[in-house]
């Protein structure tokens, strides 16, 4: 298996294969906006293009020490950068480049996993760690970023090898979407949780959700990448943002491993917007939804808030749309995702909801949470304090599992 890391000869060959535009210049070539770090705690740093989600990477099984070692190599590089002063924009695929450094780390762990398997030891934990390192290398998963796309393919392949996840596929208009299904092999007709990530996330990121919460409860898990990302990359993000989700769920109708009469949702940020739209289009499809910081209107209709969005999130949104544009034009297009303008709140939300918000969220204020809750027949709202996010989110997910099993 190609591990995107290894000998100098391998590195030269890989560098030739993945030569292309540096990540920060793929979809957004404008100047990076001034970042108010206090508004985006735990992620935004003025000297980095990517948001640094250290806590999430630790949850994925990457040790904080390992993460800091890789980030240090990136920061210390004296190689030419696409954006002077922005540490993770080393232009060429090689030492100091984000994708190179995390892929190299992943390659080391993958070789350890292969060696363990040859000795007769269980390589699963090492394989999962390698998969998440490759996924971090690919982050934020921009199309037309050659090195990122290669790293993400590695991540998915290794995850499937480690877990036995099954690919579910569907086609529409000559385009294909795939999703990952996880379930216990000795069970049939398991209740299903559909996981819908945010625009900057992918399916690989949610493996711990299955291992730590859903599998012990006897729940199957289906993760669907957002439009324009990963296994949904052939579909642009459009007003019909729930299309890929509909296609995959329809493809599950004859799947004996899951009970398609008992489908719940766990959705993060924009994934929650998709879930709410789909629940309005297909009443009765879902039995319960847990939505983490779902954007309803504010960030789609408020120009002042859009001007504060960090450069990476701008690049992600424009990349998912599938069009090159200046930011004001792309931001203006986001109005099509406003749930109020779509009429979702007029028709009402007839699925029991658990809504998890964060106090002081710059993208999803409490007013959005209130709009969603007010439109729902049944809702339970949990507002998390920023400093206690991890512990409180754990409690909230466990509560959601109880809802799923009712």
Radius of gyration: 20 Å
Question: pLDDT under 50 segments (min length 5)?
Answer: 5-9
The number of E-state strands comes to: 8
**N-to-C CA distance:** 43 Å
Helices and strands, in order, run as: HHHHHHEEEHEHEHEHHHHHHEHEH
**What's the number of structural domains?**
2
> What structural class do the secondary elements suggest?
alpha/beta
CATH superfamily of the largest domain: Alpha/Beta hydrolase fold, catalytic domain
Molecular shape: globular
**What can be said about the biggest beta sheet?**
8 strands, mixed
Structure description:
- The protein is of the alpha/beta class.
- It has 2 domains: 1-164, Alpha/Beta hydrolase fold, catalytic domain (Rossmann fold); 166-406, 3-Layer(aba) Sandwich (Rossmann fold), CATH 3.40.50.1820.
- It has 17 helices and 8 strands.
- It has helices at 8-17, 54-59, 64-76, 98-118, 124-138, 146-163, 207-214, 243-251, 270-281, 298-301, 303-307, 311-321, 327-333, 339-342, 344-347, 366-375, 389-404, and strands at 166-172, 175-182, 190-196, 220-223, 258-268, 288-292, 353-358, 379-384.
- The chain has an 8-stranded mixed sheet with strand order 1-2-4-3-5-6-7-8, with helices on both faces.
- Strand 3 (190-196), helix 7 and strand 4 (220-223) form a beta-alpha-beta unit.
- Helix 3 packs across helix 4 and helix 5 packs antiparallel against helix 6.
- The longest helix is centred in the first third of the chain and has 21 residues, at 98-118.
- It is globular and about 55 Å long.
- Residues 5-9 have low confidence and may be disordered.
């Amino acid at each position: 298996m190609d591990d995107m890391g290894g000998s100098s000869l391998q590195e030269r060959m890989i560098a030739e294969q993945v030569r292309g535009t540096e990540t920060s210049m793929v979809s957004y070539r404008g100047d990076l906006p001034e970042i108010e770090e206090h508004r985006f705690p735990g992620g935004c740093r003025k000297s980095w293009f990517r948001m640094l989600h250290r806590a999430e990477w630790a949850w994925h099984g990457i040790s904080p020490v390992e993460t800091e070692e890789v980030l240090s190599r990136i920061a210390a590089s004296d190689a030419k950068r696409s954006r002077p002063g922005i540490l993770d924009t080393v232009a060429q695929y090689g030492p100091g480049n984000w994708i190179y450094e995390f892929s190299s780390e992943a390659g080391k762990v993958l070789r350890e996993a292969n060696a363990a398997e040859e000795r007769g030891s269980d390589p699963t934990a090492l394989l999962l760690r390698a998969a998440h390192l490759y996924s971090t290398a690919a982050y934020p998963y921009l199309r037309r970023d050659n090195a990122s796309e290669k790293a993400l393919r590695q991540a998915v392949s290794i995850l499937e090898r480690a877990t036995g996840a099954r690919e579910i596929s569907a086609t529409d208009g000559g385009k294909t979407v795939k999703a990952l299904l996880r379930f216990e092999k000795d069970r049939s007709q398991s209740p299903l949780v559909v996981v819908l990530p945010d625009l900057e996330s992918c399916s690989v990121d949610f493996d711990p959700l299955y291992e730590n919460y859903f599998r012990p409860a006897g729940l199957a898990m289906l993760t669907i990448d957002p439009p324009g990302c990963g296994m949904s990359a052939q579909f642009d993000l459009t007003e019909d943002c729930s299309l890929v989700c509909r296609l995959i769920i329809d493809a599950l109708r004859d799947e004996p491993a899951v009970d398609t009469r008992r489908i719940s949702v766990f959705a993060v940020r924009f994934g929650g917007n998709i879930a709410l739209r789909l629940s309005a289009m297909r009443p009765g499809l879902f039995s319960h939804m847990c939505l983490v910081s779902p954007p309803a209107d504010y960030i789609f209709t408020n120009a002042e808030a859009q001007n504060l969005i960090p450069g990476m999130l701008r690049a992600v949104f424009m990349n998912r749309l599938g069009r090159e544009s200046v930011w004001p034009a792309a931001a203006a297009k986001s109005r099509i995702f406003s749930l109020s303008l779509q009429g979702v709140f007029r028709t009402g939300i007839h699925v029991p909801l658990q809504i998890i918000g964060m106090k002081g969220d710059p993208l999803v204020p409490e007013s959005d949470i209130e709009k969603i809750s007010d439109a729902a027949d049944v809702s339970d709202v949990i507002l998390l304090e920023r400093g206690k996010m991890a512990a409180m989110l754990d409690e909230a997910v466990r509560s959601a599992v109880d809802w799923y099993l009712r």
